[in-house]
């Protein structure tokens, strides 16, 4: 029988060790939350450049206004105020192939074209043409491109790429996601409609950091969880969930009430 093992941590009556680091002596008060997350995910603490970039990735998806994930968190909290964790979990469950979770799909696409750790040369433009053609043939969207509001550029992607440039992580994955954007717009003959979005930039830069695509949605989850706690905090100060429910119910059933009144007349 194979012995079960884990390198995540251990503890006894007086000590807690996380990834080989004493929690009380080496982590608390010394590592910020982003660096701690990097340690948990990779097994090592980041160098200063990695720390700057990884913390930027965690920050980029924290907040984006009254999104579906924020609304469902607020509405769940309205129904179960004794269970904040349920409200946060409800919001996180909406992070799929349309909202936020596209970081995973984009990273998978990039890492299939350019496996992590590969030193093989890659024709970036040729790879972009092939990927876009394949998605068009399958009538599929290229994950990590386009945004209903942010066009012709997503300013969050621009900011992340600037951090990558400053920290020395603007490499082949960034070049590939940018080439995909250019090729997709060329194929549609619609410049400015499919910029690299925040999740596409996150996917490229997580790949530059050597993080497997399977974990990229997790990076987005960490950031969005912070934002959802923020929405619950605002809900406590300025409750809007009940009004959101009541006004929505009134609007969606208004035609039924009108029809009933006319029938009664």
Topology (SSEs and partners):
Blueprint: E1 9-11, E2 16-18, E3 21-22, H1 23-27, H2 33-42, H3 48-60, H4 68-79, H5 84-93, H6 102-113, H7 124-137, H8 155-167, H9 172-188, H10 198-208, H11 216-237, H12 241-264
Antiparallel strand pairs: 1-2, 2-3
Helix pairs in contact: 3-8, 3-10, 3-11, 4-5, 4-11, 4-12, 5-11, 6-10, 7-9, 8-10, 9-10
Keywords:
single chain, 265 residues, mainly alpha, three-stranded antiparallel sheet, 12 helices, 3 strands, 3% strand
Tell me the number of helical segments per DSSP (H or I, 4 or more residues long). Answer: 12
Major β-sheet strand ordering: 1-2-3
Strand proportion: under 5%
- Overall shape: it is flat
Secondary-structure-based class equals mainly alpha
Distance between the termini: 79 Å
The low-confidence runs, each spanning 5 or more residues with pLDDT under 50, are none
Oligomer: single chain
**Major sheet details:** 3 strands, antiparallel
The whole-number mean of residue pLDDT values reads 94
Level of helix content? 55-70%
Our Rg estimate from Cα atoms comes to 22 Å
The count of strands amounts to 3
- Helix-strand pattern, N to C? EEEHHHHHHHHHHHH
Molecular structure report:
By secondary structure, the chain is mainly alpha-helical. It has 12 helices and 3 strands, in the order E-E-E-H-H-H-H-H-H-H-H-H-H-H-H. The chain has helices spanning 23-27, 33-42, 48-60, 68-79, 84-93, 102-113, 124-137, 155-167, 172-188, 198-208, 216-237, 241-264; strands spanning 9-11, 16-18, 21-22. A 3-stranded antiparallel beta sheet has the order 1-2-3. Strand 2 and strand 3 form a beta hairpin. Helix 8 packs parallel to helix 10. The radius of gyration is 22 Å and the shape is flat. The protein starts with 8 loop residues before the first strand and ends with a helix.
């Amino acid at each position: 029988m194979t012995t079960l093992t884990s390198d995540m941590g251990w503890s006894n009556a007086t000590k807690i060790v996380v990834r080989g680091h004493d929690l009380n002596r080496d982590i608390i008060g010394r590592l910020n939350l982003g660096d701690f997350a990097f340690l948990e995910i990779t097994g090592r603490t980041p160098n200063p450049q990695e720390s700057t970039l990884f913390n930027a990735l965690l920050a980029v998806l924290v907040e984006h206004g009254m999104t579906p994930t924020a609304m469902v968190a607020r509405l769940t909290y309205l129904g179960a105020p004794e269970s904040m964790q349920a409200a946060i979990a409800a919001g996180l469950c909406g992070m799929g192939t349309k909202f936020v979770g596209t970081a995973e799909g984009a990273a998978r696409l990039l890492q299939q074209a350019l496996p992590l750790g590969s030193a093989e040369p890659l024709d970036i433009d040729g790879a972009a043409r092939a990927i876009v053609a394949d998605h068009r043939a399958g009538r599929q969207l290229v994950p990590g491109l386009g945004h209903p509001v942010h066009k012709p550029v997503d300013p969050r992607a621009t900011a992340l790429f600037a951090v990558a440039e400053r920290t020395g992580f603007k490499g082949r994955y960034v070049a590939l996601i940018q080439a995909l954007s250019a090729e997709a717009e060329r194929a549609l003959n619609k410049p400015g409609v499919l910029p690299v979005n925040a999740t596409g930039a996150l996917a490229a830069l997580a790949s530059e950091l050597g993080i497997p695509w399977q974990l990229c949605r997790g990076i987005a989850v960490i950031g969005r969880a912070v934002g959802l706690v923020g929405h619950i905090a605002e809900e406590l100060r300025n409750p809007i969930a009940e009004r959101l429910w009541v006004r929505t119910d009134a609007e969606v059933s208004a035609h039924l009430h009108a029809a009933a009144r006319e029938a009664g007349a």
